[in-house]
C-alpha cells in the first residue's frame, strides 16, 4: 500500500465507525477541497452511497460559484443536502462587509452561531428536494449530536491537537488539556448524554495529500482553485470579502501539486489568504474553542 | 504522481530532557519551517533579551508558551530526501501520559530522549515500557545535552549500557544510541565535530534507515466485521460485510468462518468504489465482501478463513494492561471491552501482578490497578470472544477497556485461559445457597396446578422469523391458559425499563436481557408456572446461559425453522406451521402437562 492508500483506508475506517456508533450525525461540507475529499471518502466507505446528511452553513458572502457547484453535485450524487444561515444577523447587517463589525465577530455570527443553531435544529434548515433541485424547509428539527468535519492537523497549531473522535460539552467547549486517549485503532465512541461530538477523518492528511488524492480519484472540485486566466487562483475558499486569491498560474490539479511540491508555496501557510486568522492573535484556537470548524 | 512514503515517529522522554529542542532542530535543519518563522522567533528573543532556543520555535508553532510544557500530542511535519515524516511530540509530564499513548499508538518508531547530565529518569523507563506495550519495535535512544557533560564518551557509554539492559528486559532491542546536543545541532543533521569518538549515523540518517511496517499478508486472514450494509432504498441489492483487513488476504471463493458465532459461508465478491474490480484484498485495506449464502451475522464478529490457523475463542484471558483511567480498575465491576469491532461486557477477575513501570518492581499485594500502573490480570467477558495472543497476531491481540464513557486502559492479550470456572457459575452457586424457600414444595404445587413447571424458550435462525416466534409464543400462552394451566409469556424487549436500575447501554443490551430473563425464569419456574419467552437468533453461549440461570429447574429450548446454533442441541426443532400444537405435544411427551388430570 502506498501512503495515499493508507490514508484512505484509515479515513474509511473512521467514517464507518462513526456511522455505526452514532445516530444523528451529519457531515459539514464547506464546498472546499478538503470536505469534498471527505464526501468522496464517504462514497468509498459506503460503496457509492452517502447515508449521512451534508450540512452547509451559508453566510451569503460565499463566492457564488461555490453555491452553484454545491447544488450541482448534491443533485447529481443524490445527497441529503441541508443548509442553514444566520438570517437575523444578515437582516440586521451585523456583518463585516456591511462595516458594522470586525472580521472575527462576523465569523462568530455568520458561521459559528449559524452552525450551532443549525446543528441543534433551533434555526430553520433547508433541504434539497431531489426531484426539483430546489431547497425546501426541512421538516426534521432533530438535533445533530455528531458532526463529521474535514479538518487537517497540518492546517495550523490548534488543529494538530485534535483527536479523530473529539468530544465537546454542552457549551461546545473544547478542553484541549484533557482529551480522551486513542489506543491503536480504538477511539472514544462512548459519550455521556448531552455531549456533542466532532469526528475528524482527515486529521492525518496534508494539503499535498488532498491534491494528490483529488488527482488520483479524479474528484470533481470547484474551478475556483484554478487560474481563471488572470494569474490568480484561490488556495483556500471562504467568504469573498475576507478571502483573497493567490498569484498563481496553476490551471489544473497536477499543476497545483507541482506548485505545492517545488514551487513558491512550499513554505507558505495555506490559510495565508484568510484574513480572520491574522486578526485572531491566538490563531484559530479562540474561534475553535467556540465551535468554529 | 510521486505520493511519497511517510513515517510517523513519536518522540518521548522525561520532562525537560529536550524533546522540543530536538524537534525544533529537525524542523529547522530540514528546512521545514514556514518562511520567516525562524527569523521572527529569533527577533522575538532579541527584543525580550532571551537567548534563542530551538524549543521556542516549537512553542511558537504550537502556541503553548503559557504552560511551558507540552500537554497534548502535537504533530510536526518535516521531510528528507527519502520520505516525509510526521513527528508526534508526546508530553513528558506524567499527568499527560494518556496523551503520550495516543501519540505513540500511531507511530512506527520512537525517539527516546535522555538528558546526559540527569541520566535515566522515571519517565525514561515508563515511556520505554509503554512504547513496548504499544508494539513499537524500533526505538532509537538519543542521549541529549552532551555539551553539558563536555561530550564525555564515558557518560554516554554508561547510559547506553544501563538503558540497554532495561530495554532488553521489556522486550525492546534498541536500534541505536546516538549522542547529540540538540541545542547546538550536534549529530542532528550533521556529524558533530565534538563527538568524533562516536562512529554512527546522525539522527536524520538514522531516521531514514528505519523501516515502515510491512503489511502482514503472510499471517492468517483476520477481519473484524465493522458493519453490514444494505442500501436497498437506493436500488442496490448488495448485502456487504464491511471491515478493515488486519492481517492476511482474502479472495472470492474462500471459505470463511465468523467467530464467535461459527457461521460459515463462501466469499462471493470483493467490493469497492471507484477502483478496478478485483478478486483479492490485502492486509490494511478497508473493504467490503459479499457472501454466497445469506446468513445472519452481527457487527463485532471476527471473520477468518476456514482453512487457516484459527484464533483462540475464550471468555477468559490473561493480559497486560496499562491503566489511564481516573478511577482505578477494580475487581467485579462491569466494564466495556473493545477488541477489533466487538464491544462486550468484561470484568477483572484476578490481578496477577502490578508492575511498577519505572522500576520494574513487581507488586503483588495491590487489589486494584491505579492510574498509570501496568498490571498483569485475568479478565472475563460475558461471552467468549475471538482473539489471537499478542505474540501471534498483534492486531487481534489488543483491546481497550471503557469505564463510564472513557477509554481507561489499553491491553495486550498474552493467552486465553480455560473456562473451567467462571463468575456466572459462582454466582449461580451463591444464589442457590442463599435462596430463601417457603414451605410449599414443588410437588405440592404440581398437584394443585395439575402440571409441572417449565421454562420454554422459542428461538429461530431464519431471517425474518423474529416476529414469527413472538406470535407463536403468545399463541402458545393463550392455548395453555385456555387449558387452565398457570402460564406466562414475556418477551425480551419488555425488560428494558422494568428490571434494570439504570438504562442498559447498547453493547450490553442483549447480554443483560438474557441475564434478566434467565433470573426471572428461575423465579417463575420455582413458583410452579410455565414461563415462555422468545429470543431470536439465540446462540450457543446464550442457550447455555439460560440453562444455567434457570438451574435447578427445567428448561425446554425449541428451535423453529433454521437453527441459529453452532453445536448446541436444542430440545426440539420444529417448523412454524403447527408450532403451537407441536410444542404442546412435546410438553405432553415430557409429562409437563397431562392429557387429562384427576
Structure description:
The complex is a heterodimer of chains A (293) and B (598). Chain A folds into two domains: 3-205, HUPs (Rossmann fold), CATH 3.40.50; 208-277, no CATH class. Chain A has nine helices and ten strands. Chain A has helices spanning 3-21, 33-45, 64-76, 87-91, 103-120, 207-217, 253-261, 275-279, 285-289; strands at 25-28, 54-57, 81-84, 126-129, 134-137, 146-148, 165-168, 196-199, 232-233, 246-247. Chain A starts with a helix and ends with a helix. With 598 residues, chain B is of the alpha/beta class. Chain B has four domains: 6-209, P-loop containing nucleotide triphosphate hydrolases (Rossmann fold, 3-Layer(aba) Sandwich); 222-305, Translation factors (Elongation Factor Tu (Ef-tu), domain 3), CATH 2.40.30.10; 312-420, Elongation Factor Tu (Ef-tu), domain 3; 435-589, P-loop containing nucleotide triphosphate hydrolases (Rossmann fold, 3-Layer(aba) Sandwich). Chain B contains 13 helices and 27 strands. Chain B has helices at 19-29, 37-47, 54-62, 97-105, 122-134, 153-169, 203-209, 423-434, 442-449, 465-482, 506-526, 540-550, 579-589, and strands at 6-13, 74-79, 84-89, 109-115, 138-144, 176-179, 222-224, 227-229, 240-244, 249-251, 255-259, 263-271, 280-282, 286-291, 302-305, 312-323, 335-339, 342-355, 362-363, 374-387, 398-403, 406-416, 454-459, 487-489, 530-534, 555-560, 572-574. In chain B, β21 (398-403) and β22 form a beta hairpin. The longest helix of chain B has 21 residues, at 506-526. The termini of chain B are far apart. Mean pLDDT of chain B is 86; it is low at 64-72.
Amino acid at each position: 500500500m502506498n501512503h495515499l492508500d493508507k490514508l484512505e483506508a484509515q479515513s474509511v475506517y473512521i467514517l464507518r465507525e462513526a456511522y455505526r456508533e452514532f445516530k444523528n450525525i451529519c457531515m459539514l461540507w464547506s464546498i472546499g477541497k478538503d470536505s469534498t475529499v471527505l464526501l468522496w471518502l464517504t462514497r468509498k466507505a459506503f460503496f457509492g452511497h452517502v447515508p449521512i446528511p451534508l450540512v452547509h452553513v451559508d453566510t451569503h458572502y460565499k463566492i457564488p460559484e461555490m453555491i452553484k457547484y454545491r447544488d450541482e453535485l448534491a443533485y447529481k450524487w443524490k445527497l441529503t443536502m441541508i443548509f442553514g444561515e444566520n438570517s437575523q444577523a444578515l437582516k440586521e447587517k451585523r456583518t463585516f462587509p456591511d462595516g458594522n463589525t470586525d472580521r472575527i465577530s462576523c465569523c462568530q455570527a455568520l458561521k459559528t452561531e449559524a452552525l450551532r443553531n443549525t446543528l441543534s435544529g433551533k434555526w430553520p434548515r433547508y433541504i434539497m428536494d431531489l426531484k426539483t433541485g430546489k431547497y425546501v424547509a426541512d421538516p426534521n428539527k432533530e438535533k445533530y449530536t455528531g458532526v463529521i468535519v474535514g479538518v487537517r492537523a497540518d492546517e495550523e497549531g490548534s488543529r494538530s491537537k485534535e483527536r479523530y473522535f473529539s468530544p465537546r460539552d454542552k457549551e461546545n467547549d473544547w478542553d484541549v488539556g484533557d482529551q480522551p486517549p486513542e489506543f491503536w485503532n480504538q477511539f472514544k465512541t462512548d459519550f455521556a448524554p448531552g455531549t456533542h461530538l466532532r469526528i475528524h477523518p482527515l486529521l492525518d492528511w496534508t494539503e499535498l495529500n488532498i491534491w494528490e488524492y483529488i488527482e488520483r480519484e479524479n474528484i470533481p472540485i470547484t474551478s475556483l482553485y484554478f487560474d481563471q486566466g488572470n494569474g490568480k487562483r484561490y488556495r483556500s475558499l471562504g467568504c469573498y470579502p475576507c478571502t483573497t486569491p493567490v498569484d498563481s498560474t496553476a490551471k489544473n490539479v497536477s499543476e497545483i501539486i507541482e506548485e505545492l511540491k517545488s514551487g513558491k508555496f512550499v513554505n507558505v501557510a495555506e490559510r495565508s489568504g484568510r484574513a480572520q486568522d491574522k486578526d485572531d492573535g491566538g490563531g484559530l484556537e479562540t474561534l475553535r474553542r467556540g465551535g468554529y470548524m | 504522481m510521486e505520493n511519497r512514503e511517510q513515517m510517523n515517529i513519536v518522540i518521548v522522554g522525561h520532562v525537560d530532557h529536550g524533546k522540543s529542542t530536538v524537534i525544533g532542530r529537525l524542523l529547522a535543519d530540514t528546512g521545514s519551517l514556514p518562511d520567516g518563522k525562524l527569523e521572527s522567533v529569533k527577533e522575538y528573543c532579541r527584543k525580550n533579551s532571551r537567548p534563542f532556543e530551538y524549543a521556542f520555535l516549537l512553542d511558537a508553532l504550537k502556541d503553548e508558551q503559557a504552560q511551558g510544557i507540552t500537554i497534548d500530542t502535537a504533530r510536526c511535519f518535516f521531510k528528507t530526501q527519502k520520505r516525509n515524516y510526521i513527528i508526534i511530540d508526546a508530553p513528558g509530564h506524567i499527568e499527560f501520559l494518556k496523551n503520550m499513548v495516543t501519540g505513540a499508538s500511531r507511530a512506527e518508531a520512537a525517539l527516546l530522549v535522555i538528558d546526559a547530565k540527569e541520566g535515566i529518569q522515571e519517565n525514561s523507563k515508563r515511556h520505554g515500557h509503554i512504547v513496548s506495550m504499544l508494539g513499537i519495535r524500533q526505538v532509537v535512544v538519543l542521549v541529549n545535552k552532551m555539551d553539558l557533560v563536555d561530550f564525555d564518551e564515558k557518560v554516554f557509554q554508561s547510559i547506553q549500557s544501563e538503558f540497554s539492559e532495561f530495554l532488553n528486559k521489556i522486550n525492546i532491542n534498541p536500534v541505536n544510541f546516538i549522542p547529540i546536543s540538540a541545542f547546538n545541532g550536534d549529530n542532528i543533521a550533521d556529524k558533530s565535530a565534538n563527538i568524533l569518538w562516536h562512529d554512527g549515523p546522525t539522527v536524520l540518517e538514522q531516521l531514514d534507515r528505519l523501516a515502515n511496517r510491512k503489511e502482514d499478508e503472510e499471517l492468517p486472514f483476520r477481519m473484524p466485521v465493522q458493519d453490514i450494509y444494505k442500501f436497498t432504498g437506493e436500488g442496490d441489492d448488495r448485502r456487504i460485510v464491511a471491515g478493515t483487513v488486519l492481517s492476511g488476504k482474502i479472495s472470492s471463493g474462500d471459505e470463511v468462518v465468523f467467530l464467535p458465532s461459527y457461521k460459515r459461508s463462501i466469499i462471493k465478491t470483493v467490493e469497492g468504489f471507484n477502483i478496478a474490480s478485483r478478486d483479492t484484498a490485502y492486509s490494511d485495506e478497508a473493504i467490503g465482501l459479499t457472501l454466497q449464502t445469506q446468513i445472519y451475522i452481527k457487527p463485532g464478529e471476527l471473520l477468518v478463513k476456514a482453512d487457516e490457523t484459527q484464533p483462540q475463542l475464550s471468555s477468559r484471558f490473561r493480559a497486560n494492561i496499562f491503566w489511564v483511567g481516573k478511577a482505578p480498575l477494580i475487581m467485579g465491576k462491569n466494564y466495556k471491552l473493545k477488541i477489533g469491532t466487538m464491544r462486550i461486557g468484561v470484568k477483572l477477575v484476578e490481578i496477577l501482578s502490578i508492575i511498577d513501570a519505572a522500576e520494574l518492581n513487581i507488586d503483588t499485594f495491590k487489589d486494584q490497578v491505579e492510574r498509570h500502573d501496568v498490571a498483569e490480570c485475568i479478565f472475563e467477558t460475558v461471552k467468549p470472544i475471538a482473539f489471537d495472543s499478542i505474540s501471534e497476531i498483534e492486531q487481534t491481540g489488543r483491546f481497550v477497556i471503557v469505564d463510564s464513557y472513557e477509554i481507561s486502559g489499553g491491553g495486550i492479550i498474552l493467552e486465553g485461559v480455560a473456562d473451567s470456572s467462571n463468575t456466572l457459575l459462582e454466582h449461580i452457586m451463591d444464589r442457590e445457597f442463599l435462596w430463601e424457600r417457603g414451605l410449599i414444595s414443588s410437588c405440592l404445587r404440581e398437584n394443585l396446578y395439575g402440571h409441572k413447571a417449565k421454562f420454554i424458550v422459542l428461538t429461530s435462525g431464519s431471517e425474518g422469523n423474529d416476529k414469527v416466534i413472538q406470535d407463536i409464543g403468545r399463541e402458545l400462552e393463550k392455548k395453555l391458559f385456555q387449558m387452565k394451566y398457570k402460564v406466562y409469556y414475556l418477551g425480551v424487549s419488555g425488560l428494558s425499563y422494568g428490571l434494570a436500575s439504570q438504562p442498559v447501554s447498547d453493547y450490553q443490551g442483549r447480554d443483560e436481557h438474557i441475564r434478566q430473563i434467565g433470573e426471572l425464569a428461575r423465579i417463575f419456574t420455582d413458583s410452579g408456572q410455565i414461563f415462555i419467552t422468545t429470543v431470536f437468533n439465540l446462540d450457543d453461549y446464550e442457550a447455555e446461559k439460560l440453562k444455567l440461570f434457570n438451574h435447578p429447574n427445567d428448561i425446554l429450548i425449541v428451535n423453529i425453522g433454521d437453527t441459529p446454533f453452532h453445536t448446541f442441541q436444542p430440545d426440539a426443532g420444529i417448523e412454524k406451521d403447527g408450532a403451537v400444537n407441536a410444542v404442546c405435544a412435546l410438553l405432553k411427551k415430557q409429562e409437563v402437562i397431562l392429557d387429562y388430570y384427576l
